[in-house]
Design brief:
The complex is a heterodimer.
Chain A lengths: L1 E10 L2 E7 L4 E5 L6 H10 L11 H4 L6 E10 L2 E10 L5 E4 L2 E2 L12 E4 L4 H5 L2 H15 L1 H23 L6 H44 L5 E6 L2 H4 L1 H7 L1 H7 L10 E6 L2 E2 H4 L2 H23 L4 E5 L7 H10 L5 E5 L12 E6 L2 E4 L1
Helix pairs in contact in A: 4-5, 4-11, 5-6, 6-11, 6-12
Chain B lengths: L3 H11 L6 H13 L2 H17 L1 E2 L6 E2 L5 H4 L7 E5 L2 H9 L5 E4 L17 H10 L4 E4 L5 H14 L5 E4 L15 H9 L7
Parallel strand pairs in B: 3-4, 3-5, 5-6
Antiparallel strand pairs in B: 1-2
The chains are: A alpha/beta, B alpha/beta.
Chain lengths: 360, 198
């Protein structure tokens, strides 16, 4: 998939940006605060994902405006389509492909596939389990609408069940037990599906991550990935029963996919607590690279690679080795200094100044 | 904010389902423009419906008398009892040609909205079954999370009674195209496939 042209209107500090992108490598340079990351964020939003900076719609719309528009001409298997997003403050945001409205933003992921590398990726290793769960779920959701549906159902059932537990006010009555049985059943059904897909995914990418890590870090360290989901072994139904008393006391669901974690071990040690900053960065890069490889393999499409100020955080050796690992896909990268590692040959260089983009 | 009575009407209308603040305002101004007689007719209709319509003692559907029209109809086959969430579901099934009896739960299990089994007309349903020689209970709650949960709950409650409990099928709309079905519906339809007897 290739993004040929991008329009940003009233999006953050881009009031009227219209620019064609190189089909191989586009380099964006500009001083900090002039809109490089905004540009990348706009591209990433086309895939229907939430902002990778965790921004709400209100933050995406230029100040004083009521709506932001992102449009792109995208080419997939020789066919071009027009993808459009309207982000409206307080109103209904809309998305359409070739003027046909899509039901949910997530469905845009079938047309535009993107993998973002950002300096915040360090949190994939250092951050909370939530970030790693999202990594898994976002990857799975981007290639399977069925997984998206299951994930939505799970959240809803979980909310219902938590409400039920809260209403119990710490006491197990026979009425509560009868209702709990039903919500457990419902939860178990979708949880099994999520657990199954997640664990298959993790074992699928484990060797790929290990390989990428060795290539990026330039070492022989062993990487292993496991899905930390204690309930998977004995089944959620049983696990729920064993924590039932505590759940009723605390009024919240204590086991299930919503508490899973992806454990990344480096030489058998927890990377979250034991790996050095450099090692953590390499691991995060390896995770992103393998997600790209996975999505490319399963979807048969080559996702756009967005590198937001990634090289400035890496030493020369790692930067060079990362370049060697990058897939043969369309790449958009940003840099404040304009210097890029050897091996990166931008077909197009753009300069951003106060939200205005110009070719050099 | 408008003058007292105008704002009152807007606030009251805004509480109705599916009506937001803008629509409430529009309807309120429409009402203001109406001839007095028409406005009175609307007010009278609301009062009348609240005074005259209650719930059927047997099936909990809305009814003008103690028993609703369906429950007093001698033509009904009492063997099959259809359980639905809302009165409007009864109308839908009637149109589909179902001629058994109904039971209206007046909702579905929904802890988020504080609806548990006690808030639904389940006790009434349990009382009916031994009285009415029901052979089959057809669970026609909506095919969403809350509806499925309600159906499962009822199926469990019915287990000791030893009667046949069935769940309405979900799948493709008749006369539709396969390509337009969403993946979820199509998946369900595949799961629920049946052997074709030539």
């Amino acid at each position: 998939m290739i993004v040929k042209r991008l329009w940003l209107t009233d999006f953050r500090n881009h009031l009227t940006t219209e620019i064609g992108l190189d089909h191989k490598v586009t380099l964006i340079i500009g001083l900090n605060g002039h809109g490089k990351t905004n540009f990348v964020e706009g591209l990433a939003l086309l895939s229907g994902a939430r902002s990778f900076r965790g921004a709400k719609v209100d933050a995406l719309v230029a100040s004083g405006k009521s709506s932001a528009y992102i449009r792109a001409e995208v080419e997939q298997n020789g066919r071009s389509s027009l993808v459009e997003l309207e982000l409206a403050i307080g109103g209904q945001s809309r998305a359409q492909v070739n003027k046909q409205r899509v039901k949910t933003f997530r469905d845009l992921g079938d047309t535009v596939r993107v993998v973002v590398f950002s300096p915040d990726d360090l949190d994939l290793i250092k951050g909370s389990p939530l970030i790693r769960r999202s990594l898994l779920d976002d990857a799975l959701a981007s290639i399977s609408s069925q997984f998206r549906a299951v994930r939505t159902d799970y959240d809803r059932i979980l909310r219902q069940r938590n409400n039920l537990l809260k209403q119990a006010r710490g006491r197990l009555t026979s009425d509560l037990e009868a209702s709990l049985v039903i919500w457990n059943q419902q939860l178990v059904k979708v949880a099994d599906e999520i657990g199954d897909q997640r664990s298959r995914f993790v074992s699928h990418i484990e060797p790929v991550v290990a390989d990428f890590y060795r290539r990026v870090a330039g070492t022989d360290d062993e990487v292993s990935l496991t899905l930390d989901a204690s309930w998977l072994e004995e089944g959620l139904a049983k696990s729920l029963l064993s924590v039932q008393d505590e759940e009723i006391r605390r009024g919240v669901t204590l086991v299930g996919p919503h508490r899973d974690d992806l454990v990344v071990l480096l030489d058998q040690l927890h990377s979250r607590t034991h790996a050095s900053q450099g090692e953590q960065r390499s691991l995060a890069l390896a995770l992103r690279l393998s997600i790209h490889a996975y999505v490319a393999q399963v979807s048969g499409d080559n996702p756009l690679v967005l590198l937001d100020d990634v090289f400035s955080e890496l030493d020369e050796g790692r930067a060079r080795r990362l370049v060697e690992c990058l897939p043969d896909a369309q790449i958009v990268l940003t840099s404040a200094t304009g210097t890029v590692p050897q091996g990166v040959q931008p077909g197009l260089t753009l300069e951003i100044f106060e939200g205005e983009v110009n070719g050099i | 904010m408008y003058d007292g009575p105008v704002q009152d009407v807007i606030d009251e209308l805004g509480r109705l389902p599916g009506i937001g603040p803008k629509s409430a305002q529009r309807i309120a101004f429409h009402l203001l423009k109406l001839p007095k007689t028409e406005a009175q007719r609307l007010a009278a209709a609301i009062i009348e419906v609240k005074e005259r319509i209650g719930f059927c003692d047997r099936c909990c559907n809305i009814s003008e008398n103690e028993l609703c029209v369906t429950c007093t109809d001698p033509q009904r086959q009492t063997g099959a009892l259809c359980v639905v969430e809302e009165p409007k579901d009864v109308i839908a099934l009637e149109k589909a040609g179902f001629r058994g009896t109904y039971h209206v739960l007046q909702g579905a299990l929904n802890p988020m909205e504080g609806i548990g089994p006690e808030q639904l007309r389940i006790r009434e349903l349990l009382a009916r079954i031994p009285e009415e020689e029901v052979d089959e209970l057809i669970l026609c709650t909506n095919p969403n999370i809350e509806g499925e949960a309600t159906a499962m709950y009822l199926a469990r409650q019915m287990q000791p009674l030893g009667l046949k409990v069935t769940r309405i099928a979900s799948g493709l709309p008749v006369g539709g195209d396969l390509e337009y079905a969403d993946e979820l519906t199509l998946g369900r339809a595949l799961e629920g496939r049946r052997e074709l007897q030539p």
